[in-house]
Each structure stands twice: as structure tokens, then as C-alpha cells.
Design a protein that fits this description.
With about 200 residues, the chain is α/β, with parallel strands linked by helices. Helices cover about 35% and strands about 25% of the residues. The protein is built from seven helices and seven strands. Strands 1, 2, 3, 4, 5, 6 and 7 form a seven-stranded mixed sheet that branches.
Length: about 200
């Protein structure tokens, strides 16, 4: 278990996957997802900067001041295919089309994580590359109907059925694709606590 030097870690996220990853890292934390931040960005911003802006925006928009013994963790994940941002689907048809677009191709997953306390903040990123097999229309329909991946960038959860049958290879961190790069977060948090 990580020693936080007397600090209390707060995860500001509604993602059950980020909660699961932190729990599996044996880090004690609480969850407070309230934020004043609105997730929007200028279309001219370089795509690799988007998760950084979103993660820092979530941190700065946290609903209250931090106590002196608290560390806030926020994160944001995007998917890029051929330099185009693939967001979260709003309905079945959009999820189906997203997965059809990703089928048979490699895409990039970038997660930015921000750690902040009263003394300062640090933001870091991690990048993974995910290779999808060719997916049949039947497989995509089955996945979207059963798993309803509407809260997930790219319309898929790598830890779910589609990851088992549809992904041939990952270059980089598996947990990064889920929304939080575990090993990098652990190391950065250790350094942040001891600085």
C-alpha cells in the first residue's frame, strides 16, 4: 500500500474504471466528483493537448478549496484515429459507427492526469496504441446492445467482451486505455507526496 505522507487522496471522477484501478493499486482514496468545469475546448487546439486541458480544467473547477492535507486527482482520456478525435457516443447508432470506424485499424489513446494540492500541481500524460481486428457487424451490434458503452470514449471498454474478442494488440499501458495509467500514476503520486 502506498504511504501518502499523511495526505488524503481525492479522486474527482465519475468513472468506475478509474476507481477500480486506484483500488487495485491498494491506494486509499475518497471520491468527490463535483466540479464547476464545463468540458469544452477550441477546435484549433492540438489534439494531444486536449486531455491536458480537460484534466487541468477538472482540477481547477473542483467544487471546493482543498484542505492542507489533501491531494486531488483528476484525469481525462481521448482517442485519436488518424488525428481525428473519437469521443463518447450519444446513442446506439453512433456507438455502432464509432466501432465500425475503429475496426481493423490502430488508434491512439492519450490520458492526462493532474495531481494538485495547496502547494502546486503536476500534470502528466501516457499514450497507448490499440489495434482492432476486423469486427463484424454482428459482433459490433451484440456488444453495443449488451454493454451499452455510451460513457466510454471510442464506444468501447477494453476490459469488456469487445476487448477479449476484438483487440489483437496493445502497445503501452492497458490501464491507460481504461482511463488511468496505473504504473505511471503510482510513480508520479509517490514523487508528488515526497516533493
Amino acid at each position: 500500500m502506498m504511504y501518502l505522507n499523511g495526505k488524503a487522496l481525492i479522486l474527482s471522477s465519475t468513472s468506475p474504471r478509474r476507481e477500480k484501478i486506484l483500488s487495485e493499486m491498494d491506494i486509499i482514496f475518497s471520491v468527490e466528483a463535483k466540479t464547476r468545469f464545463q468540458e469544452k475546448y477550441d477546435a484549433l487546439i492540438p489534439h494531444e493537448q486536449i486531455p491536458i486541458l480537460m484534466s487541468e480544467g477538472k482540477s481547477n473547477g473542483f467544487h471546493r478549496e482543498l484542505d492542507k492535507d489533501e491531494i486531488l486527482l483528476t484525469a481525462d482520456t481521448i482517442i485519436l484515429l488518424d488525428d481525428k478525435v473519437i469521443g463518447k457516443p450519444h446513442h446506439h447508432e453512433e456507438a455502432y459507427e464509432m466501432l465500425r470506424t475503429l475496426s481493423g485499424k490502430r488508434h491512439k489513446v492519450i490520458t492526462a492526469v493532474t495531481l494538485r494540492d495547496r502547494k502546486g500541481k503536476v500534470t502528466f500524460t501516457d499514450t497507448s496504441y490499440v489495434y482492432f481486428n476486423d469486427l463484424s457487424g454482428e459482433d459490433i451490434k451484440y456488444y453495443v446492445d449488451k454493454y451499452k458503452p455510451f460513457d466510454k470514449a471510442g464506444a468501447y471498454g477494453i476490459q469488456e467482451w469487445i476487448g477479449c474478442i476484438g483487440i489483437s494488440r496493445i502497445d503501452g499501458s492497458f490501464s491507460n486505455v481504461m482511463g488511468l495509467p496505473a504504473a505511471k500514476t503510482y510513480q508520479e503520486l509517490k514523487e508528488f507526496v515526497l516533493r
